[in-house]
Amino acid sequence: MHLKQIADAFEAAAPGTDAFLAVKDGTRALIARDPAHASAYYLLYGFARSYVLLHEDEGISPEFAEAARHQLLGYLRRIEAAVPLGPAVLLDVMNGVVRDHEAAPQAF
To answer: Could you name the domain of life of the organism this protein comes from (predicted)?
Structure first.
């Protein structure tokens, strides 16, 4: 599985913890299969893992779930586009994702 497949499946899934769990599992598998980009996958893994840990046993509104899905999907797509562009571009994109995440409401 590639990051694009993970992002496509996440985009097509219903918002909720199951979709985030699939991202968590998929990016964790990518860490082992593509160690050259492990830090990018780990960043995404951490976001998905946090969402699952924070929200798996609580009722959340559909609006909250959709906003969180939209946020993570944006991060997935940004990193997906940066991976083939080389380490410098990928690092810059990852730094931008972290800055964006820190400035956003914390869903995960």
So the answer is: Bacteria
Cβ-Cβ contacts under 8 Å for 90 (sequence gap 6 or more): 37, 40, 79, 82, 83
CB neighbours of residue 77 within 10 Å: 16
Q: What is the pLDDT along the chain (108 residues), one digit of tens a residue?
A: 899 999 999 999 999 999 999 999 999 999 999 999 999 999 999 999 999 999 988 889 999 999 999 999 999 999 999 999 999 999 999 999 999 999 998 899
Based on its alpha-carbon atoms, the radius of gyration of the chain, rounded to whole angstroms, reads 13
Tokens 């299969």, located at residue = 33
Spatial CB neighbours of 41, under 8 Å, sequence gap ≥ 6: 3, 27, 28, 30, 31, 34
